[in-house]
Amino acid sequence: MKRELTDDRICLLCAEPQLPNGITKNGRFFCQTCDREWILEKRKIPRIGKNILSSKEKTEFLLDNLSLFNSAMELEDLMQRFTELISSRLKRDKVAVFITNLELGEIKLAYYSSRQKTLQRAIKRITLDYDLSYGVLIEAMAKGEPCFYKFSEQKHPFYEFYSKLTGTKSQLVIPILYANTAVGMVTIDYEEEDYSDFIEDQEILQLVVGQFAVSLRNSLLFSKSENQSKNFQSLHTAALTLSQLYLNNHDEMIRMILLTLSGIVESSLTCLIERTLESSKAKIFKLYRDLENYQIHTETEIIDVEKIHSILETKETITIDPITNTSFVNIGIEGKESMIFPLTLENGTNCVFILTKQENRFPQDEIEALNAFVSLARITMENSNLYQNLSNKERLEKEIEIAKEIQSTLLPRKAPEAEGFSFGGFMVPARGIGGDYYDFILSPNRNELFICIGDVSGKGVAAGLVMATVRTILHSLVRVKDSPWEILNDINNYLYSSYKEAITPRFMSMILLRWNLITGEVQYSGAGHGNFYHHQAESKALTMIETEGVILGIQPDISAFRNESKLRFDSGDTILLYTDGVTEARNSEGTQFGEPQLKSSFLSWITLEPKNILERIYSELKEFVKEQEQHDDITMVAVRKI
């Protein structure tokens, strides 16, 4: 018998009229169209919510998700694509993914998708303790059940903060369950309190959140194992560098150890307490790292042993709440958790490394990496003590031999693998060990390339130490900062704070370019280094690009010298960067090679590959100076867009 229209039953998820396949309690049924249990709606004219998906759209949504989850991608890419897919399909502006870390007892915002990019950047560092006092968010995670709630009904101050920051009045929470354990949650922010369509979003998200849980879990495990592998590779490289390059400079060696330790984990304060045998005083080296602005500065102080007795008596690696320990208060250490790594050198020197986090705790994989590096750092410190016993002649020969070898490994061994580009670069030091520096740093997504060239004041081992340190800082900064000027500013802060009280201050000039390999746009900033050349293939014109700025390390604040410029780099274009060792090279008559000769030589060989251009320029320079002694490092870099 034909049913009356008034008896049509509408599935609110797929919006198709279907007879229920067995009515269950509270009017729920199993829809034969979308294969989901859903609320029946009985009406003459179907009412469809504004975000509900048709059968075809739902199928496309599921296929998009399957394609996404089957792809091999890094964690951040997975988050970005998943939230963007939800935003696009459900037409929601603010979607977030939180990840649970039960080991640390915290829930961290892993990704926040919004059309407001400033909001997206401002909100990215939110972390919650896995504590029921936070209210409904933690309760939803603990129960593993979805929920919709109003911010006005929540008592914890976090909700007021989040509401003011994002404009959110209510929120839908969908726990991400893997093996019945919440590994995270997906949230959608709404700007109204009584948002009636949330149930449609909930049902649609529950279709895919199970698949996402598997992909998220796999991505987290892969990321963890990859980070561990990278950590130990970095530790090995850093240990070799420390053991060989810093043997004759104790304080610089300690600074480099602390810098490496703080780079392994996000530690706001890293310090070393050093007490020689039976001394009543101890020396404390501190390295502060501003995790928000990526600023670094160091300081040292002398303190009475009695004030830090409990720290020096520590015999094994432990974690501690610094607020509860008087010794930590005496040396100005505060935060959520500190790690203590004690060790005693063969000469009886008592050393204690301390790392501190302000807002979270140390996970086990970080502790393992830190333990490994502290062991390697101990070898470096022991080698340094042994090295001090060498004769002056042996020490000097060893110093030059080792430093020259290490410096050659710090410069690029091969051109970056950037499709459509050709590179060339080399440095010829004046005294075996140079203070010049050049580098190519390709971003992990291969969309951006940083190119730099610089010149440290002075020559020899001292300049080489500064060059190696700046390289370490630069490689760290380009992963977290986009602006070349901001990176130069941070390097200036480090150089000034580290060498302002040195007998011989250390300065450095630099040009830093940020090259967008997709658009061809080049953004650059200068730090008192001078000029570089840009040859345009289409017009065959050669332009001298004048950079500005001030030499790094001279003064604490260089904001008045801020400079940022852009240029367009088209197919066939070539750039040439160089240090003053090229233009100031002199012949027997005292005449400099000079800018005009460099320009002429560059144009003469412009049809060659970049590395061959540099070889020909250097050959002409050597022919010009003949047997004259080289007084400065000679460094050049050339890049062409094919």
TrEMBL record:
Name of this chain's protein: Serine/threonine protein phosphatase
PANTHER family the UniProt entry points to: STAGE II SPORULATION PROTEIN E, STAGE II SPORULATION PROTEIN E-RELATED
A molecular-function term among this protein's GO annotations: phosphatase activity
Domain GAF, chain residue ranges per copy: 74-226
Hydrolase as UniProt keyword: yes
Species for this entry: Leptospira perdikensis
Record flagged with keyword Ubl conjugation: no
Stored InterPro entries: Bact_Sigma-Reg, GAF, GAF-like_dom_sf, PPM-type-like_dom_sf, PPM-type_phosphatase-like_dom
One Pfam family cited in the UniProt record for this chain: SpoIIE
Transmembrane intervals: none
